[in-house]
Amino acid sequence: MHAVAIAVVAVGFLQLLWATAAILQRDSCRLRGSPKERRSCTGARFEVPELAVFAKVLRDQGYRRTFSSVSDARFVKHRFGFLGATVLHAGLLLAGVGVAAVSLTQSTGLLALVEGATVPAGSPLGDPSRGWLGAPAVAPVDITLERVDASFWPTGEPRRYVCTYVLSGAAGWRRVNLAVNAPRRIDGVRYHQENRVGYAFFLTVDGSSGSTKQRLDMPQPPSASEASYLTRQLPDGTVLDAKCEVDEVAGAQPVLTVRLTRDGTRLGQATLSEGDAATVGPYRISADAVFRWAVLTIDRSRGYGILFPSFFVIFLGGVLLYGFVPREVTVWKAEDGTVWADWYAPRFADWYRDELKALERAARGEAEEVA
Amino acid sequence: MSQQLVQAAALLHLAAAVLYAIASAGAVFALGKTRSGADRVSRLAGAAGLAVHVAGIAVLWVAVGHGPFVSRFENLSSYALATSALTLALVWRRPGFAPVRVVSYPVAFLLLGLGLYSGAGVSVLPPTFTGVWLVLHVCFYFLAFGTAVVSLGASVLILAGRARGRRASGGAFDAEQLDGLAYRYGGLAFAFWGIGMLTGAIWANNAWGRYWGWDPVESWSLLTWLVFGIYLHLRRFYAWKGARAAWLMVVCFALAIISLFGTSLVTNSIHSVYFRS
Questions:
Q1: Are both A92 and A118 inside the same structural domain?
Q2: How many domains is chain A built from?
Q3: Which of A87, B62, B116, B122 gets the most CB atoms within 10 Å of its CB?
Q4: Using CA atoms, how far apart are residues B259 and B220, in angstroms rounded to an integer?
Q5: A266-279 pLDDT, tens per residue?
Q6: B interface mutation test: which of A181, A184, A312, A347 has the most B CBs within 10 A?
């Protein structure tokens, strides 16, 4: 299935490449085109007075002379609009190249860190993605989460997260602030602060079968009136349901409510803050420490420098294609001495019917005057 | 204070919806007549509706402290505003295209009605909702929707005129010009939709750490854009026009509706978190 999808995309890409080449050839011909090439596909033809007289009318209408000979002259309005389709398709092609480059060199993964913890260089990242040519998804340097600064709206909903990391490598160490929606590239590696932060509760659970340490990474509660939840299964099969609540605006400490069930039977429930301990059914649970945690994405993929600029090329193509529709007028002298104009718009000709009529009227008016 | 402002904004939105309803009725009665009283009523009500609507959004902006693109109410209001503003601009520049109002003003009215029904409340910006890319992303989608509505309006008139066996406008202009309008605005919708998707990719890359995630909204959006592209290519290279092209535009618009509103409501999308509220 994967191979079929790649084949379909490859065929589509080749088709786009071929179409772009064909459009480029067509548009460059139109851009340079001599009047003789144009006459065969005229949109409208009407008689005009002498070329010099009609050229002034055209100039007033925004047409610019692009070619002239003894018997012909070509005038174009929005000349570079001829390149709209070429630029748009070239942008699509460039975007395709960018996507291919990023996909092939992809190397991304996550680090879930608690304040004060350090992950050494070379540690494998969580949820890794690696392209055929991508580097291994590992921590590039020693990374320490020093602090998580969170700000909140009056409703208690999160407003902004800024995390301070210390990156230590062979070249020394540096302190880096990373905010959500503001990734940074450092030594060729893109660090991106995820919107996933919360409170890590370090619990000790003492039971008849011994003592276990549990770290519960509770997501940040959505607001002061809403809680976040997590479920964990203990080694003996007991299910631990945890609920975290905090009123950040009031500066309160996070509170954890744990409920234990086994085989559908509720064993007990307790609410804990940092330093608290309680008996829940046959267990003694203590909240030894609470720290903030945060998730960091580390991305060493290449090709964004092609991908994102390609969007602007597409945008430019769209503007040229739809905002600057070229219209051209070829003025030529017939063998009997009369002078004619061929008006042509490569697209949306109906839209410019009024402009054509105005030119025809001007031509007739001038012709009568001349007569 | 902010709750009072939100209520004032809701009242202004309600007034705008009423004016759009009057503009819709006027547009229907003005069909086939040039410079009639109904036409004048439609123009005035449409312009007044837009002015009141802009005032409503401005008041809401002051109340919540951010642009209208977070909650469902805000989004629906923005889509309605884009539709109404583009319609007014088109009819002002090209009075001959006034009949498209029989589709675009009812759409604006329905969107405002749905928005008001879903409730105008105070919303806050989540941490990911910052930056110019987000603003560009949503603005281009609003524009894409507005232009698609105009294209749909022209297409519906072509189909209605064909069903009646006569010219859609009763002589104000011919079906060929409507066809050209549908084509051009379909092209604009395609371009704006594409740019909205691309700026969204840049924003997603900053906000979520990936530029594309095959999220349901993203996938449907891509599908819609591709079908708009097929519409344009069939018109350009296979000379599709008239009723056949108009039907395809109806399909394009249906896909746009599914992408913008449907997927957020029925699927678990990272986008739906915001539109559901």
A1: no
A2: 3
A3: A87
A4: 5
A5: 999 999 999 999 99
A6: A181
